[in-house]
Amino acid sequence: MPTLKCAIVPLVAAALALATSSASSAETTFTAKLTGSEHVPEPIMTDATGDLELVVSADGRKVRYVVTVKDMLNPAAADMHLGPAGANGPLVVKLFPARGAAPKKGPFSGVLAEGTFDASDLIGPLAGADLEELLEQVRAGSAYLNVHTNDGVDPPNSGPGDYRLGEIRGQIK
User: Fold this and answer.
1) pTM of the entire structure?
2) Which CATH class is domain 26-171?
């Protein structure tokens, strides 16, 4: 029987090592609740709300995202920015509209945007950076999502595409 015991110990150790390595390489999920009260510099009174879900792949090279909104009027863009709660910061990933797609017109509730992004999609101060740099900011609480709206009327002395800074916003946690 000592031979059987000697054979089982390495098998158990290998199984534990495999379980530990697969647990450490699991996907990671981050979320944000989007409201007008989080808008900076001043809260916006709106019935619109939303949610963001980010799922980082086990290898840390891709992020799946879903942005859902409720009671939005004319959603024009959904963008990830760097910055702590209460402060605006630079845009680093555009989630909506997707390349070639147009903003939505009129009332909208449902999935506004879903897809994936990787390091090649980073812009602004993270252009050319590794995706891990963005994920470090997210883990530190220094990233947020804005969903911008457009009333369809260009403000005086401005050009097409101007819109509010963000009707709903939420820190990514």
Assistant:
1) 0.79
2) mainly beta
